[in-house]
Amino acid sequence: MAEPLIRTVSFVKEYVMGSNVVAALRGVSLSIAAGEFVAVMGPSGSGKSTFMNLLGCLDRPTSGEYWLGGEEVAHLSGDELALVRNRKIGFVFQHFNLLPRTSALDNVALPLLYSGVPAHERHALAEKRLAQVGLAERMDHQPSQLSGGQQQRVAIARALVNNPMLVLADEPTGALDSRTSVEIMALLQELNRSGLTVVLVTHERDIAEFAGRIVSFRDGHVIEDHVIEPHDAAAVLAKMAPVT
Amino acid sequence: MNFLATLRVALNALRVNKLRSALTMLGIIIGVAAVIVMIAVGSGAQAKVEDQIRSLGSNLIIVFSASATFTGARGGAGTLQTISEDDAYAIARELPDEIQAAAPGLRGTGQVVAGNANWSTVFYGVTPEYFEAREWAIAEGRAIEQAEVTSAAKVAVIGQTVAKSLFGDASPIDQVIRIRKVPLTVVGVLDRKGQNMSGQDQDDIILLPISTARKRVLGATALAKSRSVGSISVKVRQGADMKEAETKMRELLRQRHRLQPGQDDDFNVRNLSEILQTQEESSRVLAMLLAAVASVSLLVGGIGIMNIMLVSVTERTREIGLRMAVGARAKDILTQFLVEAVTLSLIGGVIGILLGVGGAYLVGELAGWRTQLSSASIVLAVGFAACVGVFFGFYPAKKASRLLPIEALRYE
Ligand SMILES: Nc1ncnc2c1ncn2[C@@H]1O[C@H](COP(=O)(O)OP(=O)(O)OP(=O)(O)O)[C@@H](O)[C@H]1O
Ligand SMILES: [Mg+2]
Fold first, then answer.
1. Rounded to the nearest whole angstrom, what is the distance from the C-alpha of residue B333 to the centroid of ligand 1?
2. Is the ipTM of this complex over 0.90?
């Protein structure tokens, strides 16, 4: 069997708070193959976000190994991790995390700034991604001038702009109504079908069922791991009442 | 990421956060402008005093007759005066290297009458050297000449106040005035000097030949018979050492008065420049006071900058977290924030300089004060403000860039 895109070995993450040690992850070993669409579920506080942040190289595990694309990244230097985040991973935050007072286009182009893409190419690439998430008309809007769903699309476009091999999305639909949620899922499904590996966190089972595999967390452990037959988001969307 | 891109990112960040940028610059602007204006006013006041010193004759030493000063006798009618006209001539003759002019002055007071008008004033019997020693310029007519001293001519040169009181706006030249019934023809009018340091009107004066004063005006008194005078005005040469000139003059006078070692001087020497130095001292205190106020403004400006920077730390730390999350290295972050801080400081500094220089000019024009820009104060103010701006702009970024992206994103 080929080396998986993601392989974690006994991931442990502990937070030291004064004399207390909070264990957010207590030894998570998980492999995700390239091209998979994985939904992570579990009760609040079970360690989902902690896990995602580690996968996204935004944080360092207390112990354990992290193999990404055949490379051990847990022990890379800060600058090397910055390069990994920039080139290999697109992260979609639950709360969008867009730069305020900055146009959608500039927000999407942000990762390109740090990969040395020349200015004119940056704009062309960012425009392409914005068009892909259906925001061709909103490029000059600032986050405050966009709806929550539109802001989340901008965040997704930003995650995609550098052609990553992995997109990590922490509750991307958490702040959205059900129709917009399904729209976002349709977009992620489409991207996944074109070869992108997607891992997303969600609390809602019907959102998780758009993925091909559901991993459940509890108390910092993986307690369940199923492969399922995913629902088709585009089809669900078509059946929903059209927007009037 | 190359420098040009970073520059653009930084400028963009400044543009995007207009209010924060403006407030930061305001701190720098206020500090710099305040320092420039205050220092300009302070050193202007100092320069003004220095000018006053120059106009009053910075190299002036006056020798008084001891009895005249000790008894407080005015004009010395009946009192013994210990210095003489000949002392004055001896000083000029014996100390040519140090002394430019030594002018005897015989003081008197009295009513001066011209037609119906009369006026009570001071008169001085002088020689032509007096005009040089006291730096009197002539506004109209001429000064007293040596020939008039020799012949005890009945002429006078009057001050502006006397001219105004006796003749109004008419020209006093060739008019006749009477002092103690002695008629004198006015041959000149002195230029205006205004008040002296102690507020006395220096233009309320009449000058006449010393011989005329002695023989004709003070005629009946004991003074007339001697050659004694109340004072000698001595102008020390430019560049000569005042102290040394004073010492030599004192020795010369002691020798001429045949004073034994250990015996007190029978005259008093007053160095006017010393008195003026006290004035200079007080203007320096004023300048220092203003500088202190300026430093407080600078400090307040600095605290303003600090406040803005600290208030925006949370937002900026999150921004740093986000930038790092999408691939910025610590170096990229630091360069961006450094460029931001330097740009703000530079723009703020330049605006501050312009405002400060403009403000100093305005103060000069509107209040009529003399102002004098000082490049050292400008450099100091801009330097300080820039340091504060750069430090508080850069330091939080330095701290944030050491965090893991998730820590920075969660910062509060
Ligand atoms: N920075 C931190 N410092 C201390 N404890 C933390 C920190 N971040 C997370 N934790 C703890 O780690 C545990 C897991 O948190 P995590 O955010 O991963 O949960 P989650 O599964 O994402 O929950 P939710 O569904 O509510 O987002 C929690 O008990 C939390 O209190
Ligand atoms: Mg979470």
1. 27
2. yes
